[in-house]
Amino acid sequence: MATRRTTTKPPKNTPPEPVVCSPCDGSGMVAATVRVGHKRRPVGQQDGICLNCLGSGTDPNA
After folding, report:
1. How many angstroms separate the CA atoms of 15 and 58, rounded?
2. What is the value of pTM for the model shown?
3. What is the pLDDT of residue 28?
4. 59 burial type by CB count under 10 A (0-12 exposed, 13-18 middle, 19+ buried)
5. How many CB atoms sit inside 10 A of residue 53's CB?
């Protein structure tokens, strides 16, 4: 009869969770001010892609 194994296998290494990008809070989009006229007065905001993470939502420096 075979002997039983009494030890357990070590747990597998799980990859660390990605760190959220701080300028866009993980959404990949940031607000960009829209300016019009000769005096360049602000009239509103529109969504723009986050230049820190390029839309992925994860911090590239982590």
Report:
1. 14
2. 0.56
3. 87
4. middle
5. 22
